[in-house]
Write a structure and sequence with these properties.
Elements: H1 2-8, H2 14-49, H3 52-79, H4 82-93
């Protein structure tokens, strides 16, 4: 019965739901912005060099860290304080 309450959202106070929504919206916008920045950087390199290879390398180098680190991210997230982890990762991802 507890799992049904978690899925339906009952038993949560409105402030918790608001915070979850705001965090999710902010994270979505942040990831979208990072993807656009990476793509724009590739287009800028394409314009400067007229080389499709440099464009492709830029896009690939933007994806490789995620592919390598994502399998370990879940394990790390389970072992540390979630609040501190979220703040630290937001600070590290700021450019």
């Amino acid at each position: 019965m507890d799992s049904l309450q978690m899925i339906s959202g009952q038993g949560r106070n409105p402030q918790e739901i608001k915070n979850l929504f705001l965090y999710s919206a902010g994270k979505t916008i942040s990831v979208f912005g990072t993807a656009i920045y990476s793509f724009a950087l590739g287009l800028y390199l394409l314009k400067l060099t007229d080389s499709a290879f440099s464009f492709a390398v830029t896009l690939i180098l933007g994806i490789i860290p995620m592919v390598i680190l994502n399998p370990f991210a879940g394990v790390i997230a389970d072992k540390v304080n979630k609040k501190k982890l979220a703040v630290a990762m937001d600070l590290l991802s700021a450019r």
